[in-house]
Amino acid sequence: MLRTSVLRLLGSTGASRLSLLEDFGPRYYSSGSLSAGDDACDARAYFTTPIFYVNAAPHIGHLYSALLADALYRHRRLRGPSTAATRFSTGTDEHGLKIQQAAATAGLAPTELCDRVSEQFQQLFQEAGISCTDFIRTTEARHRVAVQHFWGVLKSRGLLYKGVYEGWYCASDECFLPEAKVTQQPGPSGDSFPVSLESGHPVSWTKEENYIFRLSQFRKPLQRWLRGNPQAITPEPFHHVVLQWLDEELPDLSVSRRSSHLHWGIPVPGDDSQTIYVWLDALVNYLTVIGYPNAEFKSWWPATSHIIGKDILKFHAIYWPAFLLGAGMSPPQRIYVHSHWTVCGQKMSKSLGNVVDPRTCLNRYTVDGFRYFLLRQGVPNWDCDYYDEKVVKLLNSELADALGGLLNRCTAKRINPSETYPAFCTTCFPSEPGLVGPSVRAQAEDYALVSAVATLPKQVAEHYDNFQIYKALEAVSSCVRQTNGFVQRHAPWKLNWESPVDAPWLGTVLHVALECLRVFGTLLQPVTPSLADKLLSRLGVSASERSLGELHFLPRFYGHPCPFEGRRLGPETGLLFPRLDQSRTWLVKAHRT
């Protein structure tokens, strides 16, 4: 028989029971959207990854979270001239029982373990081109100040009280679990032992006096927030899951542990016998980065987008918004949720020996290649599978052959001996489809290509807004295939620059293809920054001409001058993306910490 979790309240007073409906509700939900900071949201954007636990070396799931945030951040910067109004933070979560235990097992002081593994994350992100503006560690002094101040705010508002918590605790997940979330699992000797129903990690019965947060008072405000903001959590299935959780009882939450049991953390202000709960500590990092508790943080909050894995959804979609509402602040603007990566159909696990080392992948497939693979194949709604052959096949097909081949064709000296952006002939390719005449060479499929590429930037932006970067890349890849079809259809290598009949159309075919390549290069910058730079440099596109605001596709077709027409191409840069050897694939396993 599993024992029942019991929460005995000690020292609760009527004065501490706030009217949440009045104090925290109407200001944020009356109009169906966040009213506080709307102007700031329009001008500013702040993207965050989770801060990653340092009990083990980074794997591709960590890199995937960082790449999603990096791509969103880079795409946002492409939209406007002001880079100062956009921020992007990541970092490491370095407190808690898991760290304390992992350090003891390794025979290290907690600080040594944290320094070692945090450095691994920083090195990985630097190698992968993660363009964060801040890398925070929860062991920093600035973070301790922020956490203790936040604690003080919650306490001053009557939301913390001391109580005896008795129930199940999962050290691996760093969380307390209700009875319904615990099950029995058979052990190797035949005896059963209790585990978390969601994660499968062992749990133990715990009884101690802690500080407790009045989470139960926030059930209805959280429901109003989510029902009034259907895009607050994306993709939609995760939004629905959280609302289902809120249909159940929401018990008060223990937010400290005995310091005699957990000493590796931030002490409760004024009570050294208690250590602040690791998740409360960790979540405040999002405020620390933007200057909390100084007033400057208000210009960035709540213009915030959290990018998280589905395993930490409850902490970010229930606990964190409740803490924020309790402190008199708005919930984050968006919570983007992604699923996990499996390897050859199996969950990544040290015991199975199939944990994929991201640094080895970056070396093998190139930085841009592996970035492209994870973001092209990763679908936030469900788990995605990794195996080496899939990486090679995708990168050879879409980057080496389709995109690289298109660039090589259009810049080859045999076809483009002047190495310029040739002129566009409006009589060969009139803006009105269906016209006939001796000079008209454009076909119905060519107009379809122009239409597809003209609408591509808007389509890509919508996919980014919907957290569907894989769909954005799918759309780009589709247009690359269409452009290759256009070039193949008109075979410029069969046309003659010396012929007065061929030359205008030959120049037009190359002009259209180069314009398409310019669009592709611009849109790929958030995902494959080095490859995109190489492509745009080869086309002679300067750094000031690479924003979305400067992306005016095929202006001559629409009756406007083209600044690139007649311009010399940039210097030869070699193969855009060399083909990978399919026969030399292997499972890339992680280095042990």
TrEMBL record:
**Example GO biological process:** methionyl-tRNA aminoacylation
Q: Where in the cell is it found?
A: Mitochondrion matrix
Q: Which residues cross the membrane?
A: none
Q: Where is the Methionyl-tRNA synthetase anticodon-binding domain?
A: 444-542
Molecular-function GO term, any one: ATP binding
Q: Which reaction is recorded as catalysed by this protein?
A: tRNA(Met) + L-methionine + ATP = L-methionyl-tRNA(Met) + AMP + diphosphate
**The protein's enzyme class:** ligase
The UniProt keywords, alphabetically, are:
Aminoacyl-tRNA synthetase, ATP-binding, Ligase, Mitochondrion, Nucleotide-binding, Protein biosynthesis, Transit peptide
E.C. numbers: 6.1.1.10
Name where it mostly resides: mitochondrion
Read off the SUPFAM superfamilies from this record.
Anticodon-binding domain of a subclass of class I aminoacyl-tRNA synthetases, Nucleotidylyl transferase
Q: Which domain of life is it from?
A: Eukaryota
GO cellular component annotations of the record: mitochondrial matrix; mitochondrion
Looking at the Swiss-Prot or TrEMBL record, what is one Pfam family this protein matches? tRNA-synt_1g
Q: Which InterPro entries match?
A: Anticodon_Met, Met-tRNA_synth, Met-tRNA_synth_2, Methionyl/Leucyl_tRNA_Synth, MetRS_core, Rossmann-like_a/b/a_fold, tRNAsynth_Ia_anticodon-bd
* Methionyl/Leucyl tRNA synthetase domain mapped to chain residues: 46-410
Give the family from UniProt.
Belongs to the class-I aminoacyl-tRNA synthetase family.
NCBIfam families in the record: metG
Give the protein name, as stated in the record: Methionine--tRNA ligase, mitochondrial
